[in-house]
């Protein structure tokens, strides 16, 4: 298209070089900034479990150094077309937005919302507000108390306690339920199937079957780094879906 337009003013080659090659190269490098500078400059208001950073975010800075980081990284958000809140994207990968605020510079989000109102896009996913708030509060505590480990131990389990036979009995009576064995607990992820970033099929693959070794589903391996190293927010959400504790010799019940 650029050479065709340039042909009408007698410079098809110039249009091809500048509007075609150079412009495309600039766009590509702006895109590459997401996986380079977006992991170098900015703040981490939601999680510090990886190197992703947030820019043009409404997080309070803790000093001149953070102020300087924000100033240096505002251009990054503009160049990457909305990836200024990259830390949010890594913390909540299933969210179609690059940031929770309506005022975040996020052209892709605005286009998707527009298409949604026209009926051309459906099934938009958002992170729960309670999860976003909890992540912000957790990181604030880490900022206020640097070097202090924030323990997140489970409170004493007050729910049901099952053995293998009881798990299989529950599964047989509820064949549509998707049950996982994680950290010595039976986790019912049925209501979460539509939200899982990796898709429902992946959860079904590692679910407890009616027969066989209950510990051979591979869910434990997949969840704790084998397939994906899940975030703190994901682990917290998983704990909310526990329905029973499994008592069996050799099973580690600690998260």
UniProtKB/TrEMBL annotation:
<dbReference type="GO" id="GO:0004768">
    <property type="term" value="F:stearoyl-CoA 9-desaturase activity"/>
</dbReference>
<feature type="transmembrane region" description="Helical">
    <location>
        <begin position="12"/>
        <end position="34"/>
    </location>
</feature>
<comment type="similarity">
    <text>Belongs to the fatty acid desaturase type 1 family.</text>
</comment>
<feature type="domain" description="Cytochrome b5 heme-binding">
    <location>
        <begin position="159"/>
        <end position="247"/>
    </location>
</feature>
<dbReference type="GO" id="GO:0006636">
    <property type="term" value="P:unsaturated fatty acid biosynthetic process"/>
</dbReference>
<dbReference type="GO" id="GO:0005506">
    <property type="term" value="F:iron ion binding"/>
</dbReference>
<keyword id="KW-0444">Lipid biosynthesis</keyword>
<keyword id="KW-0275">Fatty acid biosynthesis</keyword>
<keyword id="KW-0349">Heme</keyword>
<keyword id="KW-0408">Iron</keyword>
<dbReference type="InterPro" id="IPR015876">
    <property type="entry name" value="Acyl-CoA_DS"/>
</dbReference>
<keyword id="KW-0812">Transmembrane</keyword>
<keyword id="KW-0472">Membrane</keyword>
<dbReference type="GO" id="GO:0005789">
    <property type="term" value="C:endoplasmic reticulum membrane"/>
</dbReference>
<feature type="region of interest" description="Disordered">
    <location>
        <begin position="47"/>
        <end position="66"/>
    </location>
</feature>
<keyword id="KW-0276">Fatty acid metabolism</keyword>
<keyword id="KW-0560">Oxidoreductase</keyword>
<protein>
    <submittedName>
        <fullName>Acyl-CoA desaturase 1</fullName>
    </submittedName>
</protein>
<dbReference type="InterPro" id="IPR036400">
    <property type="entry name" value="Cyt_B5-like_heme/steroid_sf"/>
</dbReference>
<dbReference type="InterPro" id="IPR001199">
    <property type="entry name" value="Cyt_B5-like_heme/steroid-bd"/>
</dbReference>
<keyword id="KW-0443">Lipid metabolism</keyword>
<keyword id="KW-0479">Metal-binding</keyword>
<dbReference type="InterPro" id="IPR018506">
    <property type="entry name" value="Cyt_B5_heme-BS"/>
</dbReference>
<dbReference type="Pfam" id="PF00173">
    <property type="entry name" value="Cyt-b5"/>
</dbReference>
<dbReference type="GO" id="GO:0020037">
    <property type="term" value="F:heme binding"/>
</dbReference>
<comment type="similarity">
    <text>Belongs to the cytochrome b5 family.</text>
</comment>
<keyword id="KW-1133">Transmembrane helix</keyword>
């Amino acid at each position: 298209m650029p050479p065709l337009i340039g042909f009408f003013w007698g410079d098809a080659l110039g249009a091809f070089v500048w509007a075609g090659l150079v412009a495309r190269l600039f766009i590509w490098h702006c895109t590459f900034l997401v996986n380079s500078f977006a992991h170098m400059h900015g703040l981490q208001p939601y999680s510090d479990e990886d190197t992703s950073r947030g820019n043009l975010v409404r997080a309070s800075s803790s000093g001149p150094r953070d102020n300087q980081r924000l100033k240096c990284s505002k251009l990054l958000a503009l160049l990457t077309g909305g990836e200024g809140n990259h830390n949010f994207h890594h913390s909540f990968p299933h969210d179609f937005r690059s940031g929770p605020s309506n005022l975040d510079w996020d052209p892709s989000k605005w286009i998707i919302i527009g298409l949604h109102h026209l009926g051309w896009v459906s099934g938009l996913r958002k992170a729960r507000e309670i999860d976003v708030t909890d992540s912000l509060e957790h990181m604030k505590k880490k900022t206020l108390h640097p070097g202090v480990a924030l323990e997140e131990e489970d409170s004493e389990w007050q729910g049901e306690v099952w053995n293998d036979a009881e798990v299989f009995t529950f599964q047989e009576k509820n064949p549509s339920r998707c049950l996982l064995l994680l950290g010595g607990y039976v986790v019912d992820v049925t209501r979460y199937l539509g939200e899982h970033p990796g898709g429902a099929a992946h959860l079904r693959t590692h679910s407890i079957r009616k027969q066989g070794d209950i510990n051979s589903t591979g869910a434990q391996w997949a969840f704790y780094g084998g397939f994906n190293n899940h975030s703190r927010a994901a682990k917290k959400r998983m704990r909310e879906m526990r329905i029973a504790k499994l008592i069996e010799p050799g099973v580690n019940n600690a998260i």
